[in-house]
Amino acid sequence: MANEPLFPKNPDETQTSIMEATFDALAEYGYSDLTINRVSQHFDKSEGIIFYHYDGKDELLLDLLNYLLERVENGAIQLSNEASPKTHLRTLLDKTLPSADETQERDYEKVLIELRTQAIHDEDYRECFNRSHQGFRETVREIIEAGIETGDFNEVDPELVADFVMTLVSGEIFDRLTMNSNRMVRSELDSYIETRLLADQPN
Fold first, then answer.
1. Which is deepest, 16, 31, 122, 144, by most CB within 10 Å?
2. pTM score, two decimals?
């Protein structure tokens, strides 16, 4: 999602404005301390409009979760069909493990962690994350399969590689936010791509 704005600068739809206000409030207060009133403090219209669209906090947050996941999924890879599988894979990783420490990027990750903890005991949240997880995993698997077919990648197991990348990305984001980790995981992942995935290139 790097370099992809989560919200349009001048949203035309009221619900998009509500999503942005909810995002800002959740990033500031966290799930436990979030209230509709606090969302309305980031909203340029009346609190009553929020209640007109949503019955309560969790309905609002589920809508936000779906909005965020769809925005990221839709913009995950926008490349020409002529781009190589290697380029596709690196672009996907650039969007999910960006090197820049931008405020919105950090807030996005923080908000997703807040919402993901709700998936432990709430089936609706769990469904959203499972769908997103499977979509990301399938994208990686398809890239690896395409690279094997073109000869760009070695004969590896696409399923295992997809699981490995998914686990590494999820763990890196979680550790960075909850433990203030600053490890060079992306660098090591790039080394893995170079030494494990990329086929030997002819001279």
1. 144
2. 0.76
Helices (H), the chain: 14-29, 36-40, 47-53, 57-74, 85-96, 103-118, 123-150, 158-178, 185-192
CA pair distance 159, 57, nearest whole angstrom: 37
pLDDT, tens digit (0-9, with 9 covering 90-100), for 51-110: 999 988 999 999 999 988 887 666 555 555 667 898 889 888 887 776 545 555 678 878
Q: Is 75 exposed, middle or buried (0-12, 13-18, 19+ CB in 10 A)?
A: middle
In tens, the pLDDT along 23-63 reads: 999 999 999 999 999 999 999 899 999 999 998 899 999 99
- What's the rounded Cα separation, in Å, for the pair 34 and 91? 34
Q: In the chain, what are the domain boundaries?
A: 14-197
Q: How far apart, in Å, are the Cα atoms of 15 and each of 20, 39, 57?
A: 9, 13, 14
Judge contact between 87 and 79, C-beta under 8 A. Answer: yes
Strand partners, 153: 198
14-197, CATH topology level: Tetracycline Repressor; domain 2 (1.10.357)
